[in-house]
Design brief:
The complex is a heterodimer of chains A (85) and B (466). Chain A is of the alpha+beta class. Chain A is 28% helix and 11% strand. Chain A has a two-stranded antiparallel sheet with strand order 2-3. The chains are: A alpha+beta (85), B alpha+beta (466). The structure holds zinc ion.
Chain lengths: 85, 466
Amino acid sequence: MLARLGLEPGDEEFYAEQLSGILAHIDRLQELDTDAIPPTAQVVEVANTLREDVPRPGLDQADALANAPSAVDGFFRVPAIQEET
Amino acid sequence: MDWEVVIGMEVHVQPTTRSKMFCGCAVGRLGDPPNSNVCEICLGMPGVLPVINKAAVEACLKTALALGCEIPRHTKFDRKNYMYPDLPKGYQVSQYDLPMSINGFLEVDGRRVRIRRVHLEEDTGKLIHAGDKLHKALESFVDLNRAGVPLMEIVSEPDLRSADEARDYAVALRTLLRTIGASEAEMEKGQLRAEPNISLRRVGSVELGVKTELKNINSFRALHRAILYEMSRQTEVLESGGTVVQETRGWSEAEGRTFAQRSKEFAEDYRYLPDPDLPPLEIDAAWIEELRRALPELPGARRGRLVSQHGLPAADAVLIAADRELADLFEASVAAGAESKPVANWIIGEVAPSGKIPTPEHLADLVKLVTAGSITRDQGREVLMESVETGRLPSDIVREHGFVQMSDESALQVEVEAVMAANPRAVEDYRAGKKQALGALMADLKKRAPQANPRIASDLLLRLLG
Ligand SMILES: [Zn+2]
């Protein structure tokens, strides 16, 4: 969802610098020789963290929709998505 | 030249759980107000921590065991990334390279259909489109009640060779899931969604043709129709020298045809990555053994036993084993002392079509009354209905109504002679060689003396007609 962030005019340079920094860091990581290291799916040493199947109250509808840019009749409203050709 | 159809099935099944896959939101019902079963986790808000629902994992493991799958020790969840408004997080949690289970099979019509994998994932939300065919919609509406509901995905190898087989596969899968209690698997409620992929090839060819995948199928009948339609559509394309386009096609029940869908047109690359919020699962042998021990007898095994132990014809065994409730009723009724074949007849002929399930004691009592000749089959039907409605023992109902089958020959002879006297024409016709006149005489006898034992009465009638 980061791709959806809107920038205020004037902020471009500030964020451009930050993003360049991130990309430069990734380039540095690429230099590491990882040939001998097996792929890692997880960095924490835990497994089988499970919860019992017990429902808990969530958000009520108004709270759920409170952050939505647009909502109507209890639904999030989004630009049209056409499914059929 | 003839074409052979090759069908594989991808089936999404909602396991029976009370809460969602990774959060405590209730799994709601169709018709709940939109966005009323949601929380910070399934809405994809920042900083939340999802936790795996144990019941969903166990339903998936039970399904895997019932399908004879291998269950690898390590399994994990991955993020499948794409942008779509029904997906609040921007990714769907699914399983990519280490699914919960692989390499199983399901027996269908006496043949093994190979299962490639069974894995767990989460459902997406629901999109409602404004506008219609004539008016292009400007907006869509999103309900996230379904977002995060657990789903099992059961993927078969392309082992099915007809629309009949594909439908039978889906039915057998539903029977299995219901038997082991992994899912209600009601297609009409969207708890079982079958998506066949279909291709044609020349008979004798081993290479696979280009396939299309069908969606929006809401019943077993629709599954059958959609596949037949798609087969004829592809045949037409190929025979007119064209090529089948690999695509997803939607089934329109109203129009009885499939149409190209342009939904979710994404790059092939979903940038799968292990979900860092969900620690992996270690499925050890003790856990699997515990689940295996708790599994009930599977439909295939039960079918075999109904034949070998109870002497049922194979066709009866298939029908009864297909429904655990009916199979339980059958065995308990036989255990209560009724003969097996008549019990099977009553279950298949009366209980299953009516959907009203008597207790085994009541069914056994009823079957005994009918097989002993105390009441007729028609009377039995009435008594069964009343017994299910009132919860009373059939023998009591019979006694109360004075239902008694007339089996006494001299009493029956009076009735038969009266029928013959009232229908001289039919008697004459029969004696002149029109054997179908017997039906009219029997019908009249049934009207005049409903309690008459039909077998003894027809013997008597034949004898008197000479
Ligand atoms: Zn939730």
